[in-house]
């Protein structure tokens, strides 16, 4: 028996107070561990029914459901892996394209900010590191 909670109640009872991410993760886990295998079993059962209704030979009655289940599981795994890497690539294409344009003002500003940030961080480390680590030897 699955009890569906109201999202505001779930967020209120959540230990992660930002947006109830632990509740969201629980639902994702529930789907991944219960709903998906149930659907795969249902689809495989449909293939078994089709194989008996169409009076396939015994070899195909055994091979078709097994191959259907394996293809579903493998397809899901491949889809998840491609989605993870594809989203990373998709998110990085726009900034990469903008950084390659020589006339883009935002890329010039970004380079300037990065250089200034690098200088600031280096100066901060050079000033405060000897106070924290007494045996630290910095290169000048």
TrEMBL record:
Transmembrane as a keyword of this entry, yes or no, is yes
Q: What parts of the sequence cross the membrane?
A: 29-50, 62-83
A single MF term (Gene Ontology): glycerol-3-phosphate O-acyltransferase activity
The UniProt keywords, alphabetically, are: Membrane, Transmembrane, Transmembrane helix
**BP term (GO), one:** phospholipid biosynthetic process
UniProt keyword Repressor, yes or no = no
Q: Which domain of life is it from?
A: Eukaryota
**Entries under InterPro entries matching the protein:** GPAT/DAPAT
Protein's recorded name: Uncharacterized protein
Q: Which organism is it from?
A: Rhizophagus irregularis (strain DAOM 181602 / DAOM 197198 / MUCL 43194)
